[in-house]
């Protein structure tokens, strides 16, 4: 287990966001690294009651995010038809993409749950959030190992408004603490 954690992918702010395309609910492909500020919310899927509530909360903030210049997309490992229907049933009416593959989850540094411990017949991602800057770079990346670990949308909305109004970007480089 320890070796697996050491090899866990972590996206680095300021680096290009992975070039992942998923099936969109309107029949088009959604390029997650497309230009423009983009908030990408990863949900576990239609089997998740917490996701149902969170989708409604995302919808309540979606207009504000978009007014700040941040487009919103919700993604899932569920097939697009299932993901889209679940989003609408949950009260979310923005962009949805489905069919997130295990390779994509690994590239994004997401935690995964396999069919041996869930009622699904396929691997699904645990929640994640990514903010992508106008050039298609990672602004922030969060991956939760638990269904309840998700960004607070009120704080996120206020922060995104501030960031886009002031064109705040991540600082390049890493800080290495002295021993």
Structural notes for this entry:
- 30% of the residues lie in helices and 20% in strands.
- It is α+β, with helices and mostly antiparallel strands and 179 residues long.
- It has a domain at 46-144: 3-Layer(aba) Sandwich (Glutaredoxin), CATH 3.40.30.
- The longest helix is centred in the N-terminal third of the chain and has 19 residues, at 49-67.
- The chain is globular, with a radius of gyration of 16 Å.
- The model is unreliable at 1-5 (pLDDT under 50).
Give the strand tally.
9
Radius of gyration: 16 Å
Stretches where pLDDT falls below 50 for ≥5 residues? 1-5
Task: Report the mean per-residue pLDDT as an integer.
Answer: 88
Helix/strand-derived category reads alpha+beta
> Into which percent range does the helicity of residues fall?
25-40%
CATH first level of the domain at 46-144: Alpha Beta
Gap between N and C termini, in Å? 26 Å
Strand content: 15-25%
Please work out how many helical segments DSSP would assign. Answer: 5
CATH topology of the domain at 46-144: Glutaredoxin
- Spatial strand arrangement across the major sheet: 2-1-5-4-3-8-9
CATH architecture term of the domain at 46-144: 3-Layer(aba) Sandwich
Series of H and E elements: HEEEHEHEHEEEEH
Question: What best-fitting shape do the alpha-carbon axes yield?
Answer: globular
The major sheet is characterized as: 7 strands, mixed
> What is the H level of CATH, i.e. the homologous superfamily of the domain at 46-144?
Glutaredoxin
């Amino acid at each position: 287990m320890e070796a697996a954690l050491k090899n866990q992918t972590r996206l680095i702010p300021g680096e290009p966001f992975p070039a992942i395309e998923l099936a969109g609910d309107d029949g088009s492909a959604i390029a997650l690294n497309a230009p423009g500020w983009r908030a990408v919310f990863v949900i576990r899927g239609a089997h998740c009651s917490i996701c149902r509530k969170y989708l409604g909360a995302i919808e309540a903030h979606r207009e504000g995010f978009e007014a700040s210049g941040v487009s919103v997309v919700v993604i899932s490992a569920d097939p697009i038809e299932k993901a889209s229907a679940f989003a609408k049933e949950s009260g979310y009416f923005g962009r949805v993409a489905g069919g997130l593959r295990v390779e994509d989850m690994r590239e994004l540094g997401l935690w995964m749950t396999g069919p041996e411990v869930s009622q699904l017949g396929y691997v699904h991602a645990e929640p994640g959030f990514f903010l992508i800057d106008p050039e298609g770079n990672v602004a922030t990346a969060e991956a939760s190992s638990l269904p309840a670990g998700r960004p607070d949308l009120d704080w996120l909305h206020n922060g995104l408004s501030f960031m886009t109004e002031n064109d705040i970007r991540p600082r390049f480089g890493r800080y290495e603490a002295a021993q």
